[in-house]
User: Fold this.
Amino acid sequence: MDQEINPAPRILIAVSDSNLRRFAVAGLRSSGFCVSAPTDAEAAMLLAQSFSPDVLIVDSRLVTPEGRPLFEQLRNSTEQYLVCIAGEGEHRVRSVMLQAGADDAISTPLHVDELAARCNAMLRRPRQLQQRVESVSAASLVVGPLTIDLGRREVRVDDKEAQTTRIEFSLLEQLCRRPTEVCTREELLDAVWGPRWVGDSHVVDVHLSNLRRKLDRAAPNTKVIHTVRGVGFRLANDITDAIGIPLAVSVGVD
Assistant:
């Protein structure tokens, strides 16, 4: 039976503190959520549309390039549930965020089990999740010249289809969900193979190498995947430059 008929709820978490982000992502994933964690406001705004999250968790300190609070921008442009994070003791900030339309507001230090429980409580009042289940076959991730059709599980580059295996598709999907970031091997293993995987982490390299060859055959003039030596993998500049967002990390060469 196709497990995607009942997809895991999706959470987009955008926080400025890298340690807090890693802690929250690990805890939410272990609670059964599909999580995307952009590192800047521009990527968060992009993924709020392409990732189709059910819940947005946003740091009160993040602002858009125009200087507007990110949570206000997202509240005005999306219908997803919105949880805002304020600093420890910032009760007035929490009040302001709730008055601005947030569905919930919490303070650091975060207790990830409580955060997961709050997300589940909101999702018991179905809003976006049911809509996504009904339209999952039509959902796509579009990043510049790269299109990932989540329903049909098809990949197109420069409007040319590339045939992929299930694992190759899932790896590319993970890179597209974090278009401005480098994904480490460990993060890709956790997302695609699961947290209980105990094999060689370089299985990721093997599958991405095969995927690269297929993408090159489909669109030889467009590079899709870039290796950041000693770190991991990200979408190549041919893809990210087309959507005009800066990379969080841009070191190393293939």
Remarks:
- The longest strand covers residues 81-86.
- The two ends are 39 Å apart (CA to CA).
